User: What shape does this take?
Amino acid sequence: MYALLAICGCKKDKKSEVVNAEESYLLEFTAPWCGYCQYMKPLVEKLEKEERVHVKQYDTDTADGDAKYAEWNKKAKQHCIGIPFFVNTRTLNSICGATDYESLKYWALEKLEK
Assistant: This one.
């Protein structure tokens, strides 16, 4: 089973409140027992703090979380057989496995191709 961590790509307003958590467009699939996922945790937290995005977590040890992993793995341009697995739901670009902060930031902030 896998776990899901959704990163809301919504910017916070000037009062540092989340504008709308329902507008999540960045997803990270992870699990507490996954070493690479634990490595990524501080990088995701840094992204959240520096880029002012909201992080929301789901556990795919539940039926709902596992279903979301399967759904987004099918929709993403690059598929992943493990975790961590990051999906930008606006561009459908993904990262499979651990990565560095700059690559994570680029993935999170990239724009739709014209």
